[in-house]
Amino acid sequence: MENTNVKKEEVAGRSLIDKVFSWPFRDVCNKDLYKNQVQRIPETFLSMTDYMKSFKDPLIEEAHADLFSNMTAVRRAPVCYIHSVEESKNFKLPKDLFYEIKFNAAEDTEKNIGTYEPKVGDLIALTDFRPKSIDDLVRPTRFYLIAYVYGTKAESSEKLQILASKCIRTEPNMQRNMRETFLGRKRETFHTNKKETLLAVCLMNMTTIVRMWRAVNSELEGGNRNILNKVVQNNAADEENCTTCFSEGKRSPSNSFICDIISSYNPNNSQEAAVLSCVSLRDCYHQNTVKLIWGPPGTGKTKTVGLLLFVLLKIKCRTLTCAPTNSAVLEVTTRLLSLVRESLEYETYGLGDIILFGNDERLRIDGCDDLRDVFLDYRVNVLCKYFASSSGWKDCLEVVIRFLENPKLQYNIYFEERKKKNVEVEDELKQEEGTSNPVKEDDDTMTFEEFVKKEFSLIRKSLKCCMIDLYTHLPTSLLPLEVVKDMIRALKLLKSLQTLLCSLSTVANEGLERVLNDLEDIGSSVGCSSKLGTTVKECLDILRSLSHTFSVPNLTDHYAIQKLCLANACLIFCTASSSAKLHTEGMTPLEFLVIDEAAQLKECESAIPLQLSGLRHAILIGDERQLPAMVQSKISTNAEFGRSLFERLVMLGHQKHLLDVQYRMHPSISFFPNQEFYNSQISDAPNVIERGYEKRFLQGNIYGSYSFISIDHGKEEFDGGHSPKNMVEAAVVSEIVANLYEEFLVTKKKVSVGVISPYKTQVYAIQEKVKGYSKYSDSGFSVSVRSVDGFQGGEEDVIIISTVRSNDNGSIGFLSNLKRANVALTRARYCLWILGNGTTLLKSDSVWKKLVLDARERQCFYNAEEDQKLALAITAALVELGKLDILLNDDSLLFREARWKVIFSNDFKESIQSIRNSEICKEVLYVLQKLSSGWRQPQEERDPVVHDGPSSQLLEMSKVSEQLNLVWNVDSLKEDSNYIQILKVWDVVPLSDIPKLAKRLDFLFGRYRVDEMNRCKHRCVEGSFVVPKRWPVDSSTCSEPDTVVSLSKDLSSLSISDEPETSTAIYRNHFKSNMKNKSEDVEFKQGWLDD
């Protein structure tokens, strides 16, 4: 186990740290520093040296890119005060600049500087100021140096050991002398009365990078290269069975014991075959083998891994299980524990063979008792208490034995101590009151019966905790089963004694005393005939036996107890990076290595556990067709630094066991990814095929199990960055989530909703819109919004995908990545709704083009505008974005189903574009939508716009807000061989401007003949709606006697703003300034007005 309490000046990965220290600031900021040095990592290698060397330059570049990325975000970096700096014993110029620093986290919290506590592996900047940007670090008046935290002092968690990149001159009193000595420079710019401080700014944690560096430089203890030699070979594809084992007929996994274990958990054929194939390696010592288990989404990979580990535990095969992340480690550990707890025969005995270790803060196991029972740090703390001589196992046991052997003696000891204490109290009272007759306090000394009951309860509870903790946390190799059986029997007898003692409440002191004292004479007829006596005698026999047959190790040092637990554990769980802690001298060899989510692990990171002492076989479980490991540097990405060992072996033709039945997705969801990514090799399990798996969370075909919902009017925005967002899609997502929540309130059926987008900016935008639903997660409705990378391994009842991209040329960026698409499309259980611009995706010539074509072929393609609520959400979003031109064209979704054709004047378009208040814009559009549907204000409520002139006969006014009115009239337009009534919208203006507008329109309307005026005034009513009238062009008569002549001019191009500066224009300018930040109180009539 890696010990961070460093006793000698050693820095793991020193050569890499020195490389980082060598970068001047300009090199850190140079993105292309290693561009020509980093070479692509090949699929095959000439030698082990060639293999190890291929990772070094990409690893250095990754550290470089990570440092630069963190330095650009230095404003958000955690900071703490450094209170002292001292040279270490082995400090030596010019390179070994070792120092000890001290910080005070509690004091930093009080000063609101944060709660940062530097950890081993942190790369920090030591400076006398808090940088606000990366440029602050290189200002002429500012100085800083880089340091690496490599250890802690055993006596204090607030004392750290660092290696500095430059010399720090220290004085006995650093605070007083810092002005002249800080960073080895004379600071002329500081005032003499200024109190200077020293800060540690966290730049990055290098722990994992350092461990990978040590792995590829053969610096890890153990140096087992047996399996690495196997994977370096060009012909890496292994045989299904070892030829020697096969010829000798060794088929141990087929014995009934193992087969019975496996079959009892009902695996499918592919899962059972994978487990048996791996377990069969246990007895093979002729070759080192690497097995691949291929687990596509939903195929029960975690169940298979759990079952494999459970079998390995049963046959006592010492195995390390790793995963790339803490969450993945917790998932597989939890799965294994669920199987183990179901099978335990003797309470929690057997859990001591399982260990989970890692960083407590990152694992976040607080409150999770199941995981805490196997967590190494917790286990060590528990065992340390019981290994101690004064309060441990031996003491707990002897106290109970002494009490049961002679309770009277124990009471006499108590009585004498109490008597002595009472005398002391009386003497104190005499001295205080100055009298020989002080008032005596009530004597609260317990009677014999009271003492026996209370004391027995306390010591029984103590021994019970001790026994349970010991058989829970000690490995079975250190605690024989017979001892555990005795412990459990003893605990049952002690519980019976407790019950018997409580039932003796009516017996006189003398009676209880006689019964207990008779126990001293084992042959006494009274003692033997008494149930109490019999129980005590039996219990004493067991406890005395335990005191002779079992003792705990004589260890008190935490590090020694850690080594004891790890050396005797059967199953160990940790991240691949943390497995470096197992590279210690004298570590008990491991037999198997199991790597879960192996396709998400960088190959050089998997080299850390692959070199552990004693490893004979490795089992990699993953899916190379899902996302690989995250890589910061684009240069390293292009060099295949993120490629996993799993993927490389597959590329070389290595055989893999496919798990071929999926249990997660409704068949309509699994159809496309199965066909596109897995060549239709995956079948649907019976549970997803049955009718009960088809669930409808919202009404309408658009919300079936699988839908592509096209949003044609979306707009991608980059906001100066590289990550786009699409606020129209975000609005549609928000509307769908709101509808799901409303349905949940009605049905009370639990539903989990996941929203996925490939782009971080879109994720943030959607999170802002749906964050209000997080408070309902405990009630059964939950919403999770994450990137594709964040959702890998996750699943929800309903998944909504926002593809974001919306452009005319089909450009979709990294959305085209097949692995990213695979992950996004395979997270849903019951419903998958994909939002995107169908036209853009069809032009992309990517997997998304295939998806859209497939959706159309399967009749799962829908336009969002076909759903009324979604159409309103889109409208509201377009208004917010100021894209009113989309809403005012002929094909606008607002008027597509309208009764009336609406034509807008240029003045109206200019007026509405100038309105900054989106709520008023929404109200204008709402009024327009009502008018186009045929709604009209009742005649008795209508006020004349003007009282004279031609406009008084045609012009209409509809109130929009307290300040604005919509001015319009009914006109006619020639279409093909017909004349049809239309709505002509002139402007949206204040009431005071309407007379001026009418006066200008009088000129236009005054040119209308009588028959034209009558055509405009014609009113055709159907029910409660007014509908447009249509007449043939050659008709000489109509319902009105006059012939109608259509307007010969395209009304949409008309402008009545002849004057250079009209009152309407003046209002628009005034409105821009007054309404820009002013919010109107508007009562909205439609759902999209509430968004």
Automatic annotation (TrEMBL):
Residues 642-837 form the DNA2/NAM7 helicase-like C-terminal domain. GO terms for molecular function: ATP binding; helicase activity; hydrolase activity. Keywords: ATP-binding, Helicase, Hydrolase, Nucleotide-binding. Residues 267-634 form the DNA2/NAM7 helicase helicase domain. One of its GO terms (cellular component) is chromosome. This is Helicase MAGATAMA 3. It comes from Castanea mollissima.
